[in-house]
Amino acid sequence: MSDTSRPPSRLSDDYTGGVPQLRLALNQIDARVGDIAGNTESVVRRVRQSAEAGAQLVAFPEMVLTGYPVEDLALRSSFVEASRAAVRSLAARLAEEGLGEVPVVLGYLDRSATAQPRYGQPAGAPQNAAAVLYRGEVALTFAKHHLPNYGVFDEFRYFVPGDTMPVIRVRGVDVALAICEDLWQDGGRVPAARSAHAGLLLSVNASPYERDKDDTRLELVRKRAQEAGCTTAYLAMTGGQDELVFDGDSIVVGADGEVIARAPQFEETCLLLDLDLPAADPDAPTGVVDDGLRIDRVVLSTEPVPSYEPEYLGGYAERLDDDAEMYGALVTGLRAYITKNGFRSVLIGLSGGIDSALVAAIACDAVGAENVYGISMPSKYSSEHSRSDAAELARRTGLHFRTVSIEPMFDAYMGALDLSGLAEENLQSRLRGTLLMAVSNQEGQLVLAPGNKSELAVGYSTLYGDSVGAYGPIKDVYKSSVFRLARYRNRAAEERGETPPIPSNSITKPPSAELRPGQVDTDSLPDYPVLDAILDLYVDHDQGADAIVAAGFDRDLVVRILRMVDTAEYKRRQYPPGTKISPKGFGKDRRLPITNGWRERA
Ligand SMILES: Nc1ncnc2c1ncn2[C@@H]1O[C@H](COP(=O)(O)OP(=O)(O)OC[C@H]2O[C@@H]([n+]3cccc(C(=O)O)c3)[C@H](O)[C@@H]2O)[C@@H](O)[C@H]1O
Ligand SMILES: Nc1ncnc2c1ncn2[C@@H]1O[C@H](COP(=O)(O)OP(=O)(O)OP(=O)(O)O)[C@@H](O)[C@H]1O
Ligand SMILES: NC(=O)CC[C@H](N)C(=O)O
C-alpha cells in the first residue's frame, strides 16, 4: 500500500453530526480452522467486551466459527452439523450470560434448507453462511450469494449460493448484510442493498493477503458504498491459515465513498465506532429485488438509540509501507502456522547466506529468538565466512546456535558409495536435511525450509536436502525481494535503535550453494534481477515464450529458464507449504500438471 494520507474523519473531536444512530463493533479477529469450541470462546469474550463498550451491533468475520477456508471439511456432514449446532448454542449462551440484547452477526458453515445433496451428503448442500443472533435465538441466517472460484478459492466445489437479501432493523436503522465475494462481483447484494433502502451495508469477510491488495480493497469498498448508496462497513479477518495470511485492515466508508475509519493491518482489534445513519424507511420495499434476491427483513429492535455524545471514535490506523507490509505478512503467516499447529520452536540450517538469515529474522519476530534454533553444518567446501556470518546472525538476534560438521557423515557415505559430480554435491545438502530432521525429532522443533520463489521456480534446490522442512516462510518471495526485505528489516531495527539482525556480509556477498569449490549461483543461473523479471512474466502472469522475448529478453535464455520452470514442477509439489504474498504463489494459485509434454518455444 502506498496511501499514507489520513482522510478527513467524521469521527473527530469536532463531530457535529447530531445524535449517532448506531454504535457498531467490528471485531477483526483470527480464527483457527476446525476449532469450533476455541473460536466460540473467543467470540463470546469479544461480544462481552463490545457490549461493555456500548456496542449496539456486533460483527465478526466470515466463517469465524469454523475458521476459513475449511476446504474439504465442508464436505463432511459431521463438521457441518457441528457448526450449525454451535451457532444455536452460542445464541442461547450469549443470552444466558446477559449478552442477548445486542445483535451479533457472524459467519459459520451451514447447509441449505432445501434438499440439494452434493457429494453424497444426505441433506442440503453446504453453504458459506452468516447468522444474526439476538435474545437467545438465531434471528436470521443467510448464505454468500457470489462464490469465488479462482486463485486459491474453490467455493463452487463446496457451496451452493444464497438467494436472499438479508436486512435487519437495529435501533431503527436498516442494515443490509453481505459476505466477502458479494462485494467483489458486480450485481447481487450491493445494488440490492440500495433497492432495499438500507441505511448501512455490513459485509463480513475473510480476504487473503496479497501484495497491494489493500489498495484494491479500499477502492472496491469505496465504489460499492457509492453503488449501495449507504455507509458500508467491511469487516476483515486477521491471522493466518496454512499458506494464507489475513491482513485485517477493516474499512468503513460513507455513502459518498469517503473513508470513515480503517483498522490496523495484521492485528486483532475491535473497531468500535458511532455511525450517524438514516432512520429506516417505513415504505422500504419487500419482495424480490436485484439478481432475483428475495428481501428477508427481520426487525430486531426499533427502540431509538439513547442520546449521547460519541465518546469512542474508530479512527484511522497508520498504514504500513510496502516492505513493512510484506514483512508483516511473512511474520504473521509463520507465527500462525507454528502456534496453530501446537509448536513453540523452529529449527533452521544457517549457511551464513541471505535466505536462511532472512528466515531466521522472520522466525525471531514470529516466535521470539528464544524459540529459534540454528545449526551451522559446515563441509569441506564451506567458506570461513559461512560459519562466521551464521555465528554473527546468532549473536545479533540471540537465537540458539550450534555447529555440527557434516564431514564425518560425508566421508562415511563417500567410503561406501563412489559418488561424484552432482551426486556428491547433493549428498551434502541431503546430509544437512537428515541432520535437521533428526534434531527436530529429538528436540521437537519445526524445521523451516529457506527456499525462495526464484529457486523454487527453476528447481534450484536438492530434493530431500535443503527442501526438507515443515514450512517455507519465503517460498513466495523472489530473490530480489529477499535482498530488499533483509535491508528493510535491518533499517527498521536501526530506526528503533536496535541491533540489525542480519549481518551485512550475508547481504552483500554473492549467493552460493557452496557444494563444490568456488561455486556461485550465477554459474547455473542468470543474475537474479534478470531471472526474476522473466519468472514474473512466466509464473505470475502466464506469458508465453514469444511474449517474454518480445518484452526484451534473450531468446535462448528465455527458452532455457522456461524449461527449467516446467521440469521443476515435481519438486514444487514436494516442497513444504509456505506463506503466500503474491497473487500467484506456488500453491493453489498455480496448478500445473507434473507430467507435461508442452514446452514453450520462441
Ligand atoms: N518428473 C520427475 N518426477 C519425479 N522425480 C523426478 C522427475 N524428474 C527428475 N526426478 C528425480 O529428481 C532427482 C533429481 O533432483 P535432485 O536430486 O534435487 O537434484 P538436481 O535437481 O539434479 O540437482 C540439484 C540442483 O540444485 C542446486 N542446489 C542444490 C542445493 C542448494 C542450492 C541452493 O543454492 O540453494 C542449489 C544444485 O547446485 C543443483 O543444480 C532424481 O532422483 C530424479 O530421478
Ligand atoms: N554450511 C551450512 N550450514 C547450515 N546450513 C546450510 C549450510 N549450507 C547450506 N545450508 C542450508 O541449505 C540451504 C540452502 O543453502 P545454500 O547455501 O545452498 O543456498 P542459498 O539458497 O543461497 O541459501 P542461503 O542464502 O541461506 O545460503 C540454506 O539456506 C541452509 O538452510
Ligand atoms: N472469502 C472470499 O470470498 C474472498 C474472495 C475475495 N475476492 C477476496 O479475495 O477478498
TrEMBL record:
CDD domains hit by this protein: GAT_Gln-NAD-synth, NAD_synthase
Annotated GO CC locations: cytoplasm
Reaction catalysis annotation: deamido-NAD(+) + L-glutamine + ATP + H2O = L-glutamate + AMP + diphosphate + NAD(+) + H(+)
InterPro entries linked to this entry: C-N_Hydrolase, C-N_Hydrolase_sf, Gln-dep_NAD_synthase, NAD/GMP_synthase, NAD_synthase, Nitrilase/CN_hydratase_CS, Rossmann-like_a/b/a_fold
Residue stretches making up the CN hydrolase domain: 15-277
Family per record: Belongs to the NAD synthetase family.
Name this polypeptide is given: Glutamine-dependent NAD(+) synthetase
Gene responsible for this protein: nadE
